[in-house]
Cyclic nucleotide-binding domain-containing protein
Amino acid sequence: MSLYRAFRKALEEGAPIQDENWSHIRPLLKLRHFKKGEYIIREGQVEDYLSAVASGCVRHFIVKGDHQVSFEFAFENELSNSYASFLSRQPSRIFIEAMEDVCLVSLHHNSLQELYKDSAVGERIGRLTTENYYIWREQRELMLLTLSPEELYLDLLSNYPVYINRIPQKYLASYLQVKPESLSRIKRRIYTNRNRT
């Protein structure tokens, strides 16, 4: 499958994109490659791209005092960018880092503006990305407000095992808002309980 299809698959989380519409988007996309540990965007830079992950995994985080606080990860066929910066053209307040060697399929902000002017396709991209982002954000906020760290870990284990398998523990602990040693205790407790049943 073409790497470029990652962008289409990410957008089609909302609804299918017709082939004739995709034919307007595809020529405007570019592949960008990052090595593990490279920054895709740093705090203070303006986000120029709407991207989907074609291969690899990225981490979104902020720096709070001496600590990095991870709040989002994106894997294959998922969108990833500093969305507020992309829309507002203001400096990003977040960092995005390649956690593995990463290939992104990216649409430049200027190209999206051209799509807005030339066809309904651009409007559709803007609407779908906004809808997907806010759905994700509300779900994430509700989970953080209503579930304990152990319940959050169990949810990842059941529904998003890729988080458990591919995210280093220190970043996963930050995402769950606990210290790494607390996450170790949670994991031990869960696996001990499972072995008893």
Summary: Residues 120-146 form the longest helix (27 residues).
